Amino acid sequence: MDIFSHPVQDDYERAKDKARHLLKSILPEKSWEELEMKDVVTYQGKRGVYIISPYSQTEILDPNSGKCLAYACLQLTIPAPTYDRMVAEYILIKSDEKRYWKTANIFSQTSNAFGFAALFYFAVTDIALFVNLLRTLLTTR
Amino acid sequence: MTKKMRMICAGGDKTLAEWDTETVSPQRLSEIEKEFNERVAQGWLAADITNKKDEIIRSFDPNAEILLIPRVRGGRK
């Protein structure tokens, strides 16, 4: 099979099993157990605690407070089972965390909080302007 | 001891080369090393996964279990 071709359904299931097996072979036993029980792999890095999930973005937690600092998104450049992406992500974080931060798209939680604050501010301002416009219209009649 | 160089592809991982560290010929090793270097030059990540070491390597190590990972990039939100 060509490395860039999309597998058909049966092949996909087989590929998924192989990828899961590969992931098992690189993970410490405890991490594998965690994956089987919680469907995530937790890795304590230097810059944070990474929660790698097969079906969602990687969550980066503050090692001290446990609060979510950011979400990270990393992709393989070929269509491959999600567990292969987990393999790549785990190895990159473990072996070259700096490169992981350079390569992955990191969506900061603080910028989200700022985004919500800005959205709230603009919504309140818009309402105030609308009320003011209504009042002006009513008083001029 | 038998070692493998595997690569991740769409159908799961596949073995690119397998060799016995005791008996492999220098010529065969040089072929495997050439393939390794070509992939790394193309942007593949090479990792030594011997005994769950999971370490990115830049040069070929005939005593390592090698996993080649396709180029990675940032994904969308």
Description:
The complex is a heterodimer of chains A (141) and B (77). Chain A is elongated, with a radius of gyration of 23 Å. Chain A is built from five helices and five strands. In chain A, 27% of the residues are buried. Chain A has 141 residues and is of the alpha+beta class. Chain A has helices at residues 9-26, 29-38, 82-95, 97-103, 109-140; strands at residues 41-44, 49-52, 58-61, 68-76, 105-108. In chain A, strand 2 (49-52) and strand 3 form a beta hairpin. The termini of chain A are far apart. Chain A is 57% helix and 18% strand. The longest helix of chain A is centred in the last third of the chain and has 32 residues, at 109-140. In chain A, helix 1 (9-26) packs parallel to helix 3. Chain A has one domain (9-108). The mean pLDDT of chain B is 96. Chain B is globular. Chain B has one domain (2-69). Chain B has a five-stranded mixed beta sheet with strand order 2-1-5-3-4, covered by helices on one side. Chain B is built from one helix and six strands; from the N terminus they run ββαββββ. In chain B, strand 3 (45-48) and strand 4 form a beta hairpin. The longest helix of chain B has 16 residues, at 26-41. Chain B has 77 residues and is of the alpha+beta class. The chains are: A alpha+beta (141), B alpha+beta (77). Chain A binds chain B through residues 1-7, 11, 14-19, 22, 25-28, 57, 71, 73-81, 84, 87-88, 90-92, 94-96, 99, 103-105, 107, and chain B through 6-13, 45, 47, 49, 52, 54-56, 67, 69-77. Strand 4 of chain A pairs antiparallel with strand 6 (72-74) of chain B, so a sheet runs across the interface.
